[in-house]
Amino acid sequence: MATTEKISVAIGRDELRIAKHAAEQDGMSLSAFVTGALRARIEERRRLEAARQVLATFEPEDFPTADEQRELLALWALPRPVSPARRPRRRRR
Question: I want to staple 28 with a disulfide (CB 3.0 to 4.6 A). Which of 4, 18, 32, 59 is the partner?
Answer without folding.
Answer: 32
